[in-house]
Design goal:
Blueprint (H helix, E strand, L loop, with lengths): L3 H10 L10 E4 L5 E10 L2 E6 L4 E5 L5 H10 L7 E3 L41 E2 L3 H6 L4 E14 L4 E6 L5 E4 L1 H5 L13 E11 L2 E5 L6 E3 L2
Parallel strand pairs: 6-7, 9-11
Antiparallel strand pairs: 1-2, 2-3, 3-4, 5-7, 7-8, 7-10, 8-9, 10-11, 10-12
């Protein structure tokens, strides 16, 4: 039996229109499918951006098991391969292994020509290792500061994940947002102190802020 929520998703997803880039196919527990991008995830609910451009929340439990795994891969929190944006300085590998060869110094076109802006330290910023304080601010717009461990590219989707030292907290940037601005400068952040402002969320018990625009991030000198 169709629920109003599922009927709305399927109706919107079937409307005619231009096909947006990077749409992915999702399957419901009853086998029906729709095309959309993941916009945001909060405990128990995922918000999709449909082909029409409309945003639609959906209970994660209504996704098929395959789509739940797909969602975990999109967010970089499942069993998907996570490729570093730039090589970890301490890592070494045999020269004969092409996949382990350090990336060229030139930055990708989407982020070339600059560096992440420097910002003054927010006196009220929560340390990224202070997960108790972040839990207390769950769902609230909060400033978090921490030392970056690595910046990763998630599988083939092209999303980015900024991971911090000594914590599971991370910053997620959807490929859609990356493509909308030339001001995402994510190179060379490893080992640097980075401050991010956004709403504290969680997925698979990992605290997370999703960044929608470059102005949410800054390097603290």
């Amino acid at each position: 039996m169709k629920t109003p929520l599922l009927s709305l998703i399927l109706a919107l997803a079937s409307l005619a229109g231009l096909r947006a880039q990077n749409l992915e196919t999702w399957v419901l527990t009853d086998g029906r499918m729709f095309e959309a991008q993941v916009k945001q995830v909060v405990p128990g609910t995922v918000t999709f951006t449909l082909r029409t451009g409309a945003d639609q929340p959906l209970e994660i439990a209504k996704l098929s098991e395959r789509s739940k795994k797909q969602l975990a891969e999109v967010l970089g929190l499942g069993q998907s391969v996570v490729t570093p944006l730039s090589p970890v300085a301490a890592a070494t590998a045999p020269a004969a292994t092409p996949s382990a060869t350090p990336m060229p110094a030139a930055a990708p076109a989407a982020t070339a020509g600059g560096a992440m802006a420097s910002v003054p330290r927010d006196s009220g910023a929560i340390d990224a290792t202070d997960e108790g304080s972040m839990e207390a601010n769950f769902g609230l717009t909060t400033t978090v500061i921490g030392k970056v461990k690595r910046v990763a590219t998630l599988g083939g989707a092209g999303h980015k994940l900024i991971e911090f030292e000594d914590t599971q907290f991370n910053v997620f940037i959807n490929k859609r947002q990356l493509d909308q601005s030339q001001d995402w400068h994510l190179e060379g952040l490893e080992g640097r102190l980075v401050q991010v402002k956004g709403k504290i969320a969680k997925y698979n018990d990992k605290l997370q802020i999703q960044a929608y625009e470059p102005a949410q991030l800054g390097v603290v000198e």
